[in-house]
Amino acid sequence: MKKFIVEPEFLEIFPETQIGIVLAKNIDNSMESSTEIKKNLDEANENAEKFLGAAVFSENPVVSVWRKAYQQFKTKKGARSSIENLLKRVDKGKAVGSINPLVDIYNSISLNYGLPAGGEDIDTFAGNLRLTKAVGGEHFLALGDDEADNALSGEICYLDDEGAVCRSWNWRDGQRTMLTEHIKNAFLIIESVDPEREDVLEAATQKLAELSEKYLGGTAQVLLVIKENPEISLD
């Protein structure tokens, strides 16, 4: 039985972190994104402007809260949270474009709610998926790269028995577990380090599940991982 486990080494640094999980099972991601999915993404790009009111980009609250979090662990130089990377595109007038239905869905959620969102293929996990501190040297081949760029000692990563799944918390996904057109069972995740946005996290997670079922079929189970409930079954 595969599990997702938030380990004590992580919780010692980020005890107030809340993670919304959607287990999307028996989905069909094989088609191109529909007109409606693309429209939702376009609207999300526009809606994301509401998170960019500060004169200095890094001072926008949904950016600064993650900047502060990233200062508390070892990262690769230049690593930033996924929500910052999306909002930076919006801030520069470069809309987040379509990739595939499932990625478009979670990117639209991320932009609409101002939270990092992502996903992995459950069936590619080697053993349990863990959110923890890397020992260092865990194998990682990022999306779009030809050469491995392994995890650093003390870096917050999603890891399984074969290496890093996502580096610098939610910065970069690996090729091995990426969401392709062949995926059937997805691990979808939304993260918050701001306890005051608990309601936003819950709404975002519910919406992610709703859109997954609407457009990709299958079933979508919603779960919450917190310090008091640090592990869930992926089966």
TrEMBL record:
GO MF annotation: an example: RNA binding
InterPro entries, A to Z: B3/B4_tRNA-bd, Phe-tRNA_synthase-like_B3/B4
Membrane-spanning ranges: none
B3/B4 tRNA-binding domain segment(s): 64-213
Organism domain of life: Bacteria
Record Gene3D superfamilies: Phenylalanyl-trna Synthetase, Chain B, domain 3
Protein name: B3/4 domain-containing protein
Organism from which the protein derives: Lactococcus lactis subsp. cremoris (Streptococcus cremoris)
